Sequence to fold (236 residues):
Amino acid sequence: MPRLLFVDDDDEILDLLTQFFRRHDYKVVAVKDGAGMFAALKREAFDLIVLDVMLPREDGLSLCRRLRATSAIPVIMLTAMGDETDRVVGLEIGADDYLGKPFSARELLARVKSVLRRSAPPALAAGQEAIRPTLAFAGWRLDLSRRELRAPDDMMVPLSGGEFDLLLAFAEHPQRVLSRDQLLDYAHGHEHEVFDRSIDVQVSRLRRKLDGGQTASLIQTVRNGGYMFAVKVERT
Fold:
C-alpha cells in the first residue's frame, strides 16, 4: 500500500483528498504545515509527498528546498493555476511534478501514479537474478536498479525522480542531439503536462550536479536543436 504525505493548510482539501486516496488503497497522513511534515517524516517512511506552495509560516518551496538537502523522496507541488514562476522554482529545487489549483482528485491520482511509477526500481521477473545494470560515463556510474548516481570519487549524488529520468534519457541516447520534445517523451512519457521552460530548468539543475567546476559541461546546448550528452556511455 503506497504511503502518501499531504501537506496543505486547507482542511476541506485535506479531508477530501484523504478520503479519496484511502478509497483507492493508499495509506494517507495529512498535516497542515512544515513542522507537521518533518515530524511525520521522522515517525515513518513515505513514498511520495504532495506539498502545497501556499502554507503558513514557511512556504512549500522553502520546505521542498530543505527536504532536498537530505532526501530524494518524490514531491508533487500544488501551485496557483497558471503561476509559471512557482513551477519553475519548484523544478529548480527538485520537485518531481506540479499541479495547478483548482484540480480534480482524479487528476492528482493520475499524477501520483505516474511519479510513483517513474521512481520505482525495475521489477524482476519470476526467477530472474538480481542483476544491477549500470551506465558508466566520464567516471560517473548510474545504477538503474537502485536509481542511484555515483560520482567519480564514489560519493552518491542525490537525484530527484525527475532528475534521474532526465539523466537516464541522456545516458541512453549519448552523443546525439535531442530536442526538448524528445527529452520530454524519453524522460516523462506523453501523459506529462509541460510548460515552455520545464526541460531547460531540469537540465540546468542536472548540470550543476554533474559538472562540479569542470570546464566543459557533460550536457551541451545545441543552438536551435536542443541538448546533447557529449560523452561516451558504457553499460556494465
User: Anything to note?
Assistant: The chain has a mean pLDDT of 84. The chain has two domains: 3-119, 134-235.
